Amino acid sequence: MENKLRYRLNKKQKLKSRKDIEAIFATGKSFTAFPLRVNWIAAPLEKYAVVGVGVSSRNFKKAVDRNRIKRILREAYRLQQHEAPAGLKVFFMYTGRELPAYEDVYKSVGKCLRHLVKNIKHSQPQDFKEDNPQTDEKN
Length: 139
Description:
Blueprint lengths: L17 H10 L1 E5 L2 E7 L6 E7 L7 H18 L7 E7 L7 H30 L8
Parallel strand pairs: 3-4
Antiparallel strand pairs: 1-2, 2-4
Helix pairs in contact: 2-3
């Protein structure tokens, strides 16, 4: 039987909790890969990578434009979500000032995901050891 990849972005994979979003911005790490700013935090107990997207209303006054950019961001992530490691909470913020072409956003999201994978590999043993309750010794 063939191993088919599923390109779904279901409810469990979407960042919805205000508490999680605030934690990402308060304690998470960030980097910029124009036209995206990426805030992320490692969450080793999560089964999936969880994603959120946003667009500044300062740069795009019309909700139609903001919603279109968010749709493009979600679609670009959905098609490349298999590159994202499980146990990651990430928020993509579009920082450009013009409506983007889908191809540009797709390339930027892919670049960001590769950067995240590299950062997670370097910080994984330290971050995951502290947060994983199974490694704590009981007295």
